[in-house]
Amino acid sequence: MIKRIIALFCAVVMVITCFASCKKEDTTNKFFAYGITEMPKHFDPQIAESVSEKMIAVNIFDGLFKLDENNTPVKCAVKDYKISTDGLVYTFYLRDDMNYYISSDVQDFLEDKSVTINKNITAEDFAFGIIRGLLPETDAPDFELLSTIKNAEKIHNGELNSSEAGVKVIDDYTLEITLDRKDVNFLYALTQPVSFPCDKQFFELTSGRYGLNEEYIISNGGFYLSSISEEKNVVINKNTEYSGAFSPVPSGVGFYLNATTLDIAEKVDEGTYDVGFFYADEDKEVLGRSVVKTELENIACSLVFNMADETLQNNKLRTGLVSCINVSDITENPLKSVLPSYYNVDNSKIEMLSYNIDVARDNMIKAFDELKIKTLDIEILCTKKYENIAKTLVNSWQKNIGVELNGIVTVLEENDFAKRIATDDFDIAICSLTVDSNNPSEFLSMFTTDNDLNISNYKSDEFDRLVNDLKVTPTNDKAVYCQSYLLKNAVVLPLYTETTTYAVHKDTSGIYFSGDSENLYFYKGQK
Fold it and tell me: Tell me: the pLDDT tens digits for 98-121?
């Protein structure tokens, strides 16, 4: 799977504040519009990866749990559950009134096959969906969320059969899941698309086309996939047969393709679209008095070393390069932690390498000796946004480093930059880092050995152990220690915090972001 380096979508719960007018009119059953810059390639929740794919999935499917406005997993398809005292065995008692919505497109497909299916959703549907998320052939982008399930990693690596998974159907409405290790975030995992139900009979009927379009997907949420206009828009409409816990207020939602986020910003401002999120300054400047804006400091602009390069695996080399950088020359408010401030970790005790030219020179001389090199050509990859920063860094190295170093700055368009990073074709890169979770351990997992977001290619059994320990028993001290470990080993150098701007048209209310901005929930929307 292609690595994602810039998950430009924050991990936050943001309830959109209502600034509706005083007119006494019906604000329900309205149609909402949302702008996207990339059409979804499919609607299979287990392999959902892009923003639009995940956003549609969380609106047309109900998982065992759903994230509410407070970022808390609340019961959705379950009516009750229990967790064993050791935190390893979860038993879920499901609602018995859940059904798949069979649209006219799906009905035509079934009639062509001369087949009927049982619309009722049972524990088997959730078990099949979750196990699909573990299988190597599925290659689920969010497999990591389910990796603590018993034998999940061995199944994912092809070492064990799926029958060995710690997922057991007790009866039609009872599901038992056993974990290899305690995971305090497991209920969160069950709110995500990778855990959504999948009807085995229907999946097999599609013969590999599951989720490709309207006729090849059945869902159980408050909305259903209504229509797709290729390269133009996707529409989800209210499921009028819905009997779950999160009945939709809107009549539907349209996802409309745009060339740029600036186009989307203009349409949110004029009221054509109802909500959007923005990162570029030019986008934010468009947003006027017609929208309500909230800014969140959830992105870390950082210098990342690629340790797929044998030269950059040398700790003294990286330490020398980092010790030669005075971040205060780059920004008035340097970020002194790996985690941006959004994560609410007290980072006052973090240990990191300090700016020290003498230490930098000493380490570089030792590194050159260990590597048996006399000169070093090193490239900093960046987009136009960070060009001046990259040049400042190169100038500092060439002026102060004390060895023969040839620094090269390569400026690329966003897409070309992403391709270079995804293929490990870089030495050092300046990136905007964030993840689709508001959990510190998930952010720090970007630097663990087998994580798909690990663009640094850093491999450390000790750091992997530290992050796993943080996941099991999260504490502020452990989060601080994990960050200190990365910083003292010069795996990444934080530069400064960037913000995400959420904007909603003033006549809109009820839409909320939960967990991450890929999970934008429309079911409470009013205007």
Answer: 999 999 999 999 999 999 999 999
C-alpha to C-alpha distance for 105 and 216, rounded to whole angstroms: 8
- All domains of the chain in start order, with CATH: 40-222 (3.90.76.10), 298-500 (3.10.105.10)
Of residues 72 and 77, more confidence is placed in 77
Identify any residues that bridge with 168 across adjacent strands, giving them in sequence order.
176
pLDDT tier, 1 (very low <50, low <70, confident <90, very high otherwise): very low
Per-residue pLDDT tens for 30-76?
999 999 999 999 999 999 998 899 999 999 999 999 999 888 999 99
User: Rounded to whole angstroms, how far apart are CA atoms 263 and 436?
Assistant: 24
Asked if residue 156 lies in contact with residue 147, where contact means CB atoms within 8 angstroms, the answer is: yes
How many Cβ atoms sit within 10 Å of the Cβ of residue 129? 24
Give the span between the Cα atoms of 450 and 1, in whole angstroms. 12
Distance CA 110, CA 42 (A): 20
Residues 6+ apart with CB under 8 A from 35: 255, 256, 258, 261, 263, 264, 267, 268, 273, 276
Strand 167-171 and strand 89-94: pairing? unpaired
Mean pLDDT of 462-488: 94
Q: Which residues pair with 35 in a beta bridge?
A: 256
Measure the CA–CA gap between 103 and 87, rounded to whole angstroms: 40
Cα separation, 302 vs 26, in Å, equals 48
CA 477 to CA 442: how far, in whole Å? 16
- pLDDT given for residue 18 in this prediction: 39
Residue type, 119: K
Instruction: Work out the angle between the directed axes of helices 357-371 and 387-400 (0-180°, nearest 10).
Output: 80
Give the single-character DSSP code of 447.
G
**CA separation for the pair 183, 24 (Å, rounded):** 48
Amino acid at 456: S
**At residue 97, what is the residue type?**
D
